[in-house]
Fold this protein.
Amino acid sequence: MVHKILFWSGFGVAVRLWQLGIEMRPFFNKESLWAYPVFAAAGGSFGYWLTGVENRQMKILADRRNSLLEKRRRRAEREGGSEKVEEDGILASTS
């Protein structure tokens, strides 16, 4: 989680440097140094939000995977149990 926040904070600072480069203004002007932490904070907050989105998506995918495995297990039991069901991410082969 921290690496994503740090990456996006650095990206925010890079955006500020890019902005100043496009405007052809000096990078370290005393009057505009306050903007670097603002851009870093904006990028870091985006990274924090993105980490939350990723966690929610992974939870949804894990729940969906578990429901599909449970459905396959129930179907295999109903059809006589002749097929092996995928468990713990290992593909099972049929005999």
Q: What stands out?
A: Helices lie at 2-23, 35-78. The two ends are 43 Å apart (CA to CA).
